[in-house]
Write a structure and sequence with these properties.
Radius of gyration: 19 Å
Structural class: mainly alpha
Shape: globular
Low-confidence stretches: none
Number of strands: 4
Strand content: under 5%
CATH topology: ABC transporter involved in vitamin B12 uptake, BtuC
Oligomer: single chain
Number of helices: 13
Order of helices and strands: HHHHHEHEEHHHHEHHH
Largest sheet: 2 strands, antiparallel
């Protein structure tokens, strides 16, 4: 609310209907990525390959559009690709006991390279047509000329994530593993299964985000998804999820994503250089982590 007040004073355009709609549309991708990262961070892990996953899944979806395939085929196929990448990350972390940062750094490079190879380093334009129009509607369409369809996708994603984490056995297992992995194992919880599930969900949601990006800009860029992980992790931390795992709520993550979206939008309205924006977002992450550390020391 403080950020909204400050931004509205700095720029009269900030609270216009068109700009607010634009913020929600631009925030949709990061919000979905952040929801997936939240699952992983709750287990005490991290996934910095989400940008590459989104880029690769987006490139494949763009190619499928050019082959005149329906969106009902493209979206599930992209989700399966993302989930498969998530399973790879999860198995390497949970079964091979490798550090999440190193594993996802490796898969980040692998699938970034795969995206360049798949696209040939060139942009894939999705063209036009009836099937293309339905695909474009995912990222840029409006329901009843009022509500962005991408916002509806975000609502559905967060409703499912909330239910999975708060009302299922698997969700409780994810929290237990992040809170104390050894205690969870001694309690009979399948620790490896919980971690693999978290990374699988993260990969699947990254793919959905990648599809939305392609849908919104009507093309797949070989560089799409670069540095997406920074905004997503910032949204999760600002939303109150502890980087140590086991503590946080996915519904607050969307608040963090909207906060990041408003900051980005305000900086753009003020014509602040993108170079400065990168530094500012890095500072926001550090401040959020410091606040998280301070809060935990106060509790103890």
């Amino acid at each position: 609310m403080l950020i909204v007040a400050i931004c509205s004073v700095i720029s009269p355009r900030f609270l216009t209907v068109g700009n607010i709609t634009n913020i929600f549309r631009q925030t949709a991708v990061n919000a979905i990525l952040a929801a997936g990262v939240c699952f992983v961070i709750l287990t005490g892990g991290i996934d910095i390959s989400i940008g590459s996953t989104a880029g690769f899944a987006g490139a494949v979806s763009a190619y499928m559009v050019t082959q005149n395939l329906s969106v009902v085929v493209i979206l599930p196929a992209a989700i399966l690709i993302g989930a498969f990448i998530g399973v790879i990350n999860g198995v390497l972390v949970a079964k091979c006991n490798l550090q999440p940062m190193i594993v996802t750094l490796g898969t980040q490079s692998i699938f970034r390279g795969a995206t360049y190879v798949f696209t040939g380093g060139r942009t894939i334009s999705i063209g036009s047509g009836a099937s293309v129009a339905s695909f474009k509607a995912l990222g840029s369409g409006m329901l009843f000329d009022t509500v962005p369809i991408s916002l509806i996708v975000v609502v559905v994603v967060y409703a499912c994530a909330f239910y999975l984490l708060q009302h299922t056995r698997y969700g409780r297992h994810i929290y237990a593993v992040g809170g104390n992995e050894e205690a969870a194992r001694l309690s009979g919880i399948n620790v490896s299964g919980a971690k693999i599930l978290a990374y699988t969900v993260c990969g699947a949601l990254s793919a959905i985000a990648g599809v939305l990006v392609v849908s919104r800009i009507s093309s797949a860029q070989p560089t799409a998804g670069i540095a997406y992980e920074m905004d997503a992790i910032a949204a999760v931390v600002i939303g109150g999820t502890s980087l140590r795992g086991g503590e946080g709520r996915v519904v607050f993550t969307v608040v963090g994503a909207i906060t990041i979206g408003m900051i980005n939008n305000m900086l753009n309205l003020m014509a602040v250089s993108s170079y400065y924006q990168i530094s500012i977002k890095g500072l926001v992450i550090i401040l959020a982590v410091l606040l998280d550390a301070y809060t935990n020391r106060t509790k103890n």
